[in-house]
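Chain particulars:
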Amino acid sequence: MNRTQEKLFEFRSPPVNGKRIRQARELRGLTQVALADALGIDQTMIAHIERGTKQPASELLEALAVELEFPVSFFRQTDAPEFPAGSLLFRSKAGIGRKVVAQAHAHTELVFELALRLSASATLIPVKLPICEDAIEGARSVRKATQPEDGPIVNLVRAVERLGVLVVPLPDLKDCDAFAVWAGPNRDYPVIGIIVSKSPDRVRMNIAHELGHLVLHKQITGGTRDQESEAYRFAAELLMPASGIIEDLKLERLTLFRLAALKIKWQVSMQALARRARELQVLSDRQYRYLMQQIATRGWRTNEPEFQQLQEEKPRALRRLIEVVFGSKADWKHVGAEVLLGSDFIADIMNACAKFPDQSPNTTRTRRKAQVVRFSNPI
């Protein structure tokens, strides 16, 4: 074989995608300067690589992979699917640092891409989320789709997932509890990113609030106070429907003790209950202020006491999707290699999601690749 023939069969790896370098860097919460310092190179080199004007040498690429904790193959992928910032656009204006916004966005963008990739082997739950312009009507439509009764919604996170919303567990990020976005080329996929390590009542309110943005503000291009107020009104009616909670609020005088009892039933904070009582004119403004002063005096504004442990709520659908494709006993290192994300990233996702309640240690699943599997049964 001569030299010309050798070139015909020469193998060349795909080029490094600078957007993937940036995505991984932002996920790790690093600036270009911090990453360059860690690698012992100039910041301009990182800038060139991310812009695609220079390709890293193999040694530098290996160092980047180690520092950013992703396999080399991750950086050779094409661009990620379209994933707008959604409600992060105005979360950032409310005091969240740009680095935290970028980190939350990169994490959820990667998980969304993972879900789309796995959907080739397991059908995603169909989207049944109603779209409305009115907050109260929207909340009632969602309640009708999840449960017919006016009582507390049992496991809100799971109920939201059954409507086709991809709920993504976020890493613990400062000042960023949750955000929502309609993702994909046609904005067809509703996604909520949520920090699940917060108190259950806070998780439920955050989920309900972001769900309000999905239902009411599908084309989110910037936040206003009106949009935030609408999302709160939606969340209040969803979690504490007027027709269902009014008798509970009127049954006894609303003291801190009474609010604590109602918190256990409705799975929302005492402060949310007091505010709802004022909105429904069960409490006067003066009575509401008095209760809030009592709560503040006890230091409960940011950390309410748990008189009875509330049910912890975690997303399930994402873990279920991975289990359907790879099996519940699949090795995370193997899964990470297959989806080009690394074992640590997959392990973090799986650990932040709920396991199937009836899953026993001896349960095994066979891997089903390229087979359509519906899992819209209880998740």
Notes: Residues 98-118 form the longest helix (21 residues). Confidence is low (pLDDT under 50) at residues 3-11, 358-379.
